[in-house]
Each structure stands twice: as C-alpha cells, then as structure tokens.
Design a protein that fits this description.
Layout lengths: L21 H46 L14 E5 L5 E6 L4 E8 L2 E7 L6 E6 L16 E11 L2 E11 L8 E6 L6 E3 L2 E2 L4 E5 L2 E9 L4 E9 L6 E6 L3 E2 L3 E4 L2 E4 L3 E4 L3 E6 L2 E6 L4 E6 L4 E5 L5 E5 L8 E4 L5 E4 L2 E2 L4 E2 L6 E7 L6 E7 L5 E15 L2 E6 L2 E6 L5 E6 L6 E4 L3 E6 L3 E6 L5 E6 H4 L7 E7 L2 E6 L4 E4 L1
Parallel strand pairs: 27-30
Antiparallel strand pairs: 1-40, 2-3, 3-4, 4-5, 6-7, 7-8, 8-9, 8-10, 11-12, 12-13, 13-14, 13-15, 16-17, 18-19, 19-20, 20-21, 22-23, 23-24, 24-25, 26-28, 28-29, 29-30, 30-31, 31-32, 32-33, 34-35, 35-36, 36-37, 38-39, 39-40
Length: 491
C-alpha cells in the first residue's frame, strides 16, 4: 500500500505595504538640521576667529602706538635678562628712543663734554662727538669753567628723528651767556648744525621746529619779545610773532627775600609758552596765537596736559593761590602744579593731573581736574614717585601698594600690595613694572594687577651690588643703578 499523502498547511496571503514616506521625511529633516547646525557652528567659529583676529590686530596697533610713547619700555623677556653692564663712563642719558633703538649720552669731563651714541641693546659705542662750548665760555675761559649741563630734546624732520642739545655752563658773566646748540642725527652722530642762542634769548623745540625768544627793551623799562620758529638744520624761518610791550619786573620781594624773576620759554608737542613779568603768551606749534594770559610776577607758569596752563606762586601759604587756565580760557583756583608722569599715552584727554602737598610726609596728593571747568574730579593722597597713565588708567605707588584708578572717575580698578614702597613704576604696555628698594622686580598685569613674574635683581647684578641708587627708562630698556656705581640694563 502506498503511504497516504498529507495535506499542505494553509498559507495565509501576506500584503507588503508601501512606505508612506514619513520615516524618510524624518531622516531628511534630521540631515537638514544637522547641516544647519554644522553651518551655524562653522559660522560661529569664523565669527570668533574674526573677532579674535580683530582683537589681535587692535592689540598690535595699540602696542605699536605705545612703542612711540616716551618712557614706555620694550616688551620685557620672561624672565628679564641683563642686556649689558652699565658703567659711569657710558655717560648720563640725555636723549633716547625705545622704538628706534638709539641712545645719546653726555660724557662730562674737566672743561668740556662729549656726546656719544650708544647701542641700547649692547652698550657698544656707535659714535662720539665733542660738544663745542667756545660760545658759552666765561671771560676767564676754561680756567673759570667748573661745570656744564647738557639738555636735549628730540624733534622730527620728516620721518627721521633729530636731537637738539644745548650746553649751559657756569659761572655766567653778569650780562648772561650764549647757549651753544648741537643738532645731530642720533643714529649716525652726524653733526647737522651748530646754532648759538645769544645771551638773554631763550630756546625750546616743538614738533620739528626750533623756537627762539629774543627780548628787545624799549628804553622805558618795557620789553617786547620776538618768537621765531626755524628749521633746526637749515635755519629757514617757518613763523614769527611779536608780543606787546610789557613793563619789566626784574625782582620780586617775598617777605624779607628778594627773588630774581626770570623769563621762561617752554614747549610740548603742540604748544609754546613764553612767560615774563606777569604775562604768559601761548602759541600753537604752527605759530597760531592761543592767548595772552595775565598772571602775577611772583610765581611761575607751566604747561599742563589737555591744553591747560597752570600758574603757581612762589610763596608757601596755607591758602591755594594758583590758577588753572583751561584750553577754553576758564580759570579755577588751585593749589597744585602739573604732575610729572613717567608715561602719558594721551588717553583721558578731558583730564588734567596735578600734584600738591597733602600735608604729610608720606608723599604728595595727586589731583585730577576737569580740563574744561577746572573742577576737582578726584584726589589720592600719599602718592610717591611719578604716576603712569595708560589706556585711561592712572597707576600710582601709594605706601606699599600699587593702585590703578580710572583717570576720569578715580574708581579703583585694582590695588596690589608689593611689600615695600616702590622705588619706580614703569610699563611695557602689557604689565606694570615695579622695582622695590630690596632689589626686587615685579610685573603686574596692566588690566587686573595680577602678578606675572618676580625677579631678584641682586642675582643679576655684578658682584655684591649694594642697594638701588636709581631706576630709569633707558631708550626703551630698564636701567637699574646701584649705590656702588655699577648698573645693569634689562630687556
């Protein structure tokens, strides 16, 4: 018999459904979203890179600008290194340029002085030029010539710097003495001109011009001054002005003392100030008259920042007797004189900084006034040394602290104790450089005061150097001189 054949199992029909498209749309949307996210991230990265590039470019431009500001150090190495050993035969610095890399010193010797150019990075002598003093010698010649003082100022001739130096000798004959000048190229030492300022005349330099003030007496105890601005090399006249005739005031009696009232000529980057016999005449560097200010004869006038002029009497009284004259001509009573700043980058143009006695022995008062009204904005007592003004912030040494204040409001941005009264404050544009009497160099962040580095200068000094005698900016480098006559130049 054959085996029975079984039935096949029932097979249910299966229908395959076509996709409705929703999953594909989800996937597509996810891909598009991812693409948008990636694009946004790329755009954000590009924006951040662009912003950072802009910030970096702005910082580079800021540092380039600061490099040309007098007193600013070149960027210090971390840690600072000794570039060369300073010795007294290098001569005292009379002119220097941190950005251009040159320095001019005055080497004094019996009966004369020699100008010398020094490489500020190595201390090597580049050139040496004797300064002729024949025009200024007293009647007895060099036998009566015990001392000489050289002062120099830098002017611009096109894109090139020039140094104008004057030699003032003593003793001076009763009729006064002529002042010999030397105009030279500070890089090569080439002597370009040797003009002489006659006895009784005054000189100053502003911009690229040499300005002389020459008096003419009218025979009735009156005097008229002629100001002449010339090219320092060629002598060609660029502008000239005459003052009105004013009665001469030769002597001023203060209590039992008689003080000789001397005329003075001063200049800054864009102004020239002549004072004599209770008058102050202001001119722009281009010769434009900026006013005739009447002041008393028993005092002196000085140029302040932000276009201000400050007059202060000689006598010491408890009542403020000085006068601040703003650029607009507003007068305000003050008891201070213009502050000496080791660095001023011309920020905070609406602020005048003055210093005066704070009534104590621990420093002076630093006073900020409005450049338009003369009103006091803020005051800080117990300030020592010369403040810094960088990026609209005033940095001062007060007691054993370094304090940073907004130049306009006086708001304290930061204050850092440094352990001792600072001997010197400086900056390279990124940090505040502090040198203390215990031969310590500190670097504090310019923006926040955060300590960046600390260096024991005694370890860098030759031999067993004694305490610090002087700290100065030396053509963009830092010169630390010790009491034993040695010194080091840091960079």
């Amino acid at each position: 018999m054959s085996a029975p054949v079984g039935r096949a199992p029932h097979l249910a029909p299966v229908e395959l459904e076509e996709p409705d498209g929703s999953s594909a749309r989800v996937a597509s949307r996810a891909r598009r979203h991812s693409a948008r996210v990636i694009a946004a991230l790329v755009a954000l990265v590009l924006v951040l890179v662009g912003v950072q590039s802009w910030l970096d470019a702005r910082e580079r431009a800021r540092l380039r600008y600061l490099a040309d500001v007098p007193g600013v150090l070149r960027t210090l190495a971390d840690p600072p290194t000794v570039l060369w050993r300073w010795t007294p035969d290098v001569g005292s610095l009379v002119a220097g340029d941190g950005a251009g890399g040159w320095a001019v010193g005055a080497d004094y010797h019996p009966g004369g002085v020699t100008l010398r150019g020094t490489d500020p990075d190595t201390g090597d002598r580049r050139w040496s030029v004797p300064f002729s003093l024949d025009a200024a010698l007293p009647p007895g010649g060099r036998s009566e010539f015990p001392s000489v003082w050289v002062r120099c100022t830098t002017v611009r001739s096109g894109d090139a710097p020039l140094v104008v130096c004057a030699a003032e000798v003593s003793p001076v004959a009763s009729g006064g003495a002529a002042t010999p000048l030397a105009v030279l190229d500070p890089v090569t030492g080439s002597l370009l001109a040797t003009p002489t300022v006659p006895a009784g005349s005054l000189w100053a330099a502003t911009g690229g011009l040499l300005v002389r003030a020459t008096p003419t007496e009218d025979g009735r105890r009156g005097v008229r001054w002629t100001l002449t601005a010339t090219d320092p090399v060629t002598g060609s006249v660029q502008w000239q002005h005459e003052t009105p005739v004013v009665p001469q005031v030769h002597e001023v009696r203060i209590r039992d003392d008689v003080i000789r009232a001397e005329p003075e000529l001063a200049a800054d980057a864009d102004r020239v100030l002549l004072t004599d016999s209770g008058h102050a005449w202001l001119f722009g560097a281009d010769g434009s008259p900026r006013g005739d200010v009447a002041v008393a004869a028993d005092g002196r006038a000085e140029l302040g920042r932000s276009g201000a002029l400050v007059w202060m009497p000689w006598q010491d009284t408890a009542v403020p007797g000085g006068v601040l004259v703003t650029r607009a001509g507003t007068r305000a009573t003050v008891g201070e004189l213009p502050a000496r700043l080791s660095v001023d980058d011309d920020t905070a143009p609406g602020v005048v900084l003055l210093t005066g006695d704070d009534g104590g022995w621990d420093g002076v008062a630093l006073v900020a006034r409005d450049a338009g009204t003369g009103d006091e904005l803020w005051r800080a007592d117990g300030v020592r040394g010369e403040p810094l003004l960088v990026d609209g912030v005033v940095h001062t040494a007060q007691g054993a602290d370094v304090v940073a204040r907004d130049a306009r409001t006086g708001e304290v941005r930061w204050s850092v104790p440094v352990g001792a009264v600072p001997s010197w404050l400086g900056t390279d544009g990124s940090v505040v450089v502090v040198v203390t009497p215990d031969r310590t160099l500190l670097a504090l962040g310019l923006a926040d005061g955060r300590p960046a580095r600390s260096v024991d200068l005694a370890r860098l000094a030759p031999g067993d150097a004694e305490g610090i005698d002087q700290v100065v900016e030396y053509a963009g480098r830092l010169l630390v001189r010790f009491r034993d006559g040695t010194g080091i130049v840091l960079g």
